[in-house]
Structures are given as C-alpha cells and as structure tokens.
What we know:
Layout: H1 13-21, E1 25-28, E2 36-40, E3 43-46, H2 52-55
Antiparallel strand pairs: 1-2, 2-3
Amino acid sequence: MRRASGYHPHFDDDRVLEILKNPDAVHLSEGGRGNPIFRRGEGIVLRKGPGRARAM
C-alpha cells in the first residue's frame, strides 16, 4: 500500500485495508480534487487524487 506524505492513520494497516476493500459507503470530496472517501462504520479512509475511485 502506497502512502502519501503526511500519512497519519488513526488505526493499523489491516483496518485501513478492511475499509478500502469493503466500505459501507464511498463519497467524493467537494472541490476540484474529488478525493474518494471510504467509510466503514465510524472509520474513514481518504484516498488522494481525482478519479481514484474509478480505478479501483
């Protein structure tokens, strides 16, 4: 898993992968970047960059 500079998770890598593989919902952030936000329960993972959600 590649990490952006400034990466600062609030849980371990296994939880991050669980959220990315099986989210309850996926949202796009507002603004020009359109970063995908993956949510599972109360945990979220923000992916960096436009169009990433379509590539997964």
